[in-house]
UniProtKB/TrEMBL annotation:
Residues 1-16, 31-62 have a biased composition (Polar residues). Residues 1-82 are annotated as: Disordered. This is Uncharacterized protein. Residues 63-73 have a biased composition (Low complexity). It comes from the Eukaryota.
Amino acid sequence: MSNNHYYSGTNSQGNHYCNRGESTAPGGSYHYSNTNGSYYYQNSNGSTYYSNPNTGYKSYTPSSSNSNSNSNGGSRGYSGRK
């Protein structure tokens, strides 16, 4: 049974977040809009996407049930975690 809780706010680093579902994924989904212009999504299936338009860096991590991945290298530099 799906639980459609929704909440949003701003963390101590000034990054905005929204969360849907029972909790952070898996089981829910969330995203961050970071103060540096980057953004981070985690979907309920566990897949993640990060993009920083200032540097051109993008990273996609598939859910554990999908073995394909696409990344242009480097490390995820997001600071948007709660």
